[in-house]
Amino acid sequence: MTDNISADRLRLFIERIERLEEEKRGIADDIKDVFAEAKATGFDAKAMRVVIRLRRMEKHHRDEMDAIVDTYRAALGMA
Amino acid sequence: MTDNISADRLRLFIERIERLEEEKRGIADDIKDVFAEAKATGFDAKAMRVVIRLRRMEKHHRDEMDAIVDTYRAALGMA
Amino acid sequence: MTDNISADRLRLFIERIERLEEEKRGIADDIKDVFAEAKATGFDAKAMRVVIRLRRMEKHHRDEMDAIVDTYRAALGMA
Amino acid sequence: MTDNISADRLRLFIERIERLEEEKRGIADDIKDVFAEAKATGFDAKAMRVVIRLRRMEKHHRDEMDAIVDTYRAALGMA
């Protein structure tokens, strides 16, 4: 790096990213903790994940997907 | 690497892994092609993925998960 | 869900996880923004990621890895 | 599904994808086996992965990346 200014700027960018990644890892751990807490209370983590994924969908889209999946399950003898 | 034998052995391992990774990428492309073909026929790729994931589960486990998810959806007003 | 208490508790767990996942997505976007800012300043995002990955390693471990990779590169004619 | 033909067609697509996914999992296991074999021979799996990733790059691109990473490492006191 030809001059110190660029080196300092690079360091600032790198350290900003590292702090954000650290924060992200912290939140990922918090999510794990909440699932563990729910599990200890008797809830099923896998089923909770399915429901969370469904809640992210618009209701009309979710209803449409439900209908298609049910149709495919029936067609494949999985109803 | 102190001697040519190790260098050759390393190359053999690396090339074996590269061939396998190449093969794996080829199959991933084939899977994409089948989904595209199904989509062109009018099937819904996302719903197919849900059904394929469900088919990987044992029937009794799948029934249990269905029941729990339905219970949670009802409890959250998503039935 | 037999009683309202469990339904409420499930909702609380689900909403806590959703808020944390929302926060995590926000931070992932922030990370992307910083890389974009660095790129606009003339830095190379891929090289920055390599350096960030290396900085996560203990120095002695990093030096050891450097030495092994250099040896392997030389053995494979990639020096 | 209104008629049996679509149900059969859906089943065929699903079974083709399942066979390909099975094949892909098999190859992923083979890759793990080769790494384990190399490790048992004394090679370092992580360093091998770094080298394999570098070999996937065009030589001129690899040389360019090497130069940038070295510059950044020097700028950050990681040379």
Automatic annotation (TrEMBL), chains A, B, C, D:
Transmembrane segments: none annotated. Residues 7-77 form the GapR-like DNA-binding domain. InterPro entries: GapR-like, GapR-like_DNA-bd. Pfam families: GapR_DNA-bd (PF10073). Residues 10-37 form a coiled coil. Keywords: Coiled coil. It comes from the Bacteria. Belongs to the UPF0335 family. NCBIfam families: PRK13694.1. This is UPF0335 protein ACFQ1E_17485. It comes from Sphingomonas canadensis.
